[in-house]
């Protein structure tokens, strides 16, 4: 019999708090040195309830660190041209250092041309071809998407050494899986990406020292998929209604099954989510600092 493993929770909330305090100091310093207040513009189109929660959290944290927040809530009926025009305006606005277009957009809008129209120097989400290319080349001076950057920072804190570890990323999106793979490759991991058409995801997971799950499929990863002692990063946030009719957040990992198998795991909520927001603020202060140097 295997003795059950003591599973340690990775406290994303505490990590995010520390990071946010540092950003706050940097904002104050920048203001003192230059008189500039970093500004973040967030565009939200339509009324997806989950997106509204994230955007509200972002706005709250932006104010907390002393940055300016420019919220643009656009109706569901917004056209491609109107959205495009707004991005152009924000690109030219000297008070705006970072621009984020909350995804997903309503179905009638094509996200790619909109994202690609953001000035790379204001692309704090790291989704333009310029910043994605920088990351692929291993240049660390571009903007890195906030969620994978947060996952990397958590892993660097939790593990003594990443070099040589087997990492499996389940999910291959431009926002998460692909940049995560680049980051871990640059950090010396042996990286595998599994996606919807992968036939042996479970088997691959069982080999993984680091397992990162970002699929949006609730509790996809079972306890039996997890290698003993592995570090599990659960990026999923799924809203479910409990039998007593309460809204509950659950991850892409069956958390109760993972306890006793994983060495370390991020909870949902309180894991990757808050760190994502802290990284967004981190990228925005970087954008404002670079703006001064130019
Ligand atoms: N262009 C773009 N950039 C993003 O960075 C981006 C995006 N689109 N679309 C959606 C995802 C998701 N995301 C989260 C932000 C905050 C929490 C967060 O605050 N989570 C809390 C719980 C919040 C809740 O109650 O739902 C937690 O996990 O503890 C989660 C997820 C950013 N994303
Ligand atoms: Mg979980």
From TrEMBL:
Belongs to the tetrahydrofolate dehydrogenase/cyclohydrolase family. Pathway: One-carbon metabolism; tetrahydrofolate interconversion. InterPro entries: Aminoacid_DH-like_N_sf, NAD(P)-bd_dom_sf, THF_DH/CycHdrlase, THF_DH/CycHdrlase_cat_dom, THF_DH/CycHdrlase_NAD-bd_dom. The gene is folD. CDD domains: NAD_bind_m-THF_DH_Cyclohyd (cd01080). It catalyses: (6R)-5,10-methylene-5,6,7,8-tetrahydrofolate + NADP(+) = (6R)-5,10-methenyltetrahydrofolate + NADPH; (6R)-5,10-methenyltetrahydrofolate + H2O = (6R)-10-formyltetrahydrofolate + H(+). Keywords: Amino-acid biosynthesis, Histidine biosynthesis, Hydrolase, Methionine biosynthesis, Multifunctional enzyme, NADP, One-carbon metabolism, Oxidoreductase, Purine biosynthesis. Catalyzes the oxidation of 5,10-methylenetetrahydrofolate to 5,10-methenyltetrahydrofolate and then the hydrolysis of 5,10-methenyltetrahydrofolate to 10-formyltetrahydrofolate. Pfam families: THF_DHG_CYH (PF00763), THF_DHG_CYH_C (PF02882). GO terms for molecular function: methenyltetrahydrofolate cyclohydrolase activity; methylenetetrahydrofolate dehydrogenase (NADP+) activity. NADP(+) binds at residues 171-173, 196, 237. Its EC number is 1.5.1.5, 3.5.4.9. This is Bifunctional protein FolD. Homodimer. The keyword NADP applies. Residues 145-291 form the Tetrahydrofolate dehydrogenase/cyclohydrolase NAD(P)-binding domain. Residues 10-125 form the Tetrahydrofolate dehydrogenase/cyclohydrolase catalytic domain.
